[in-house]
Write a structure and sequence with these properties.
With 148 residues, the chain is α+β, with helices and mostly antiparallel strands. It is built from 4 helices and 4 strands, in the order αββααββα.
Length: 148
C-alpha cells in the first residue's frame, strides 16, 4: 500500500506521462489544447479525467444553476446519436447526480474498471482508454461548441 504522498507522486507522474504522450496530438479545432486540463470555453461544462486504484474515468460534467446545468445536459442528450457516433466507448448518461459535497451535477461518463494507477503495467491500457475518448470528445466538441 502506498501512503498519501507516494500515491500523489505516482498520480503526478502518470498525468505528466499522459500529457507528454498527448502533446503531439492535434485538436480537431484550430486552438492548441491542453489534453490533461481541457478547457471547453463554456461556463458550467467540464471535460474531466481521473484515474484511481480501481478504475479510470473520463467525464463530461455539467454544473452551475439548475437551469443552465439541465439546459446544457439536454443539448448533449438531444445530440446523443451524433455523440455516440463520434466518440468511442460506452457512456453512462446521468441527468442528476449529487456529489459528496452536496452539489448537483449532470454527467456523461465512460469508465474502465480493473486498472490501478499505481501499477505501471496498467498505464498503456489507461492511456489508450483516455486517449481515444478525449480525442473523440474533442472531435465532437469542435463540431458543436458554437451551439452552446
Amino acid at each position: 500500500m502506498y501512503n498519501r504522498n507516494e500515491h500523489a507522486k505516482i498520480k503526478q507522474e502518470f498525468w505528466t506521462s499522459f500529457g507528454r504522450y498527448m502533446m503531439p496530438v492535434q485538436s480537431a479545432g484550430i486552438e492548441k489544447v491542453n489534453w490533461v486540463n481541457y478547457k471547453t470555453g463554456i461556463k458550467g461544462i467540464f471535460f474531466k479525467m481521473d484515474v484511481g486504484i480501481s478504475e479510470a474515468v473520463i467525464a463530461i460534467e455539467f454544473s452551475g444553476d439548475d437551469f443552465g446545468r439541465k439546459t446544457n445536459y439536454e443539448k448533449f442528450l438531444n445530440d446523443r446519436s451524433l455523440f455516440e457516433t463520434v466518440v468511442p466507448g460506452n457512456w453512462e448518461w446521468i441527468a442528476q447526480y449529487q456529489c459528496v459535497n452536496g452539489k448537483w451535477i449532470s454527467i456523461i461518463k465512460s469508465t474502465l474498471t480493473g486498472v490501478n494507477i499505481t501499477d505501471k503495467k496498467d498505464w498503456p491500457d489507461i492511456i489508450s482508454f483516455l486517449k481515444s475518448r478525449i480525442i473523440g470528445v474533442d472531435n465532437y466538441w469542435t463540431g458543436v461548441k458554437d451551439y452552446y
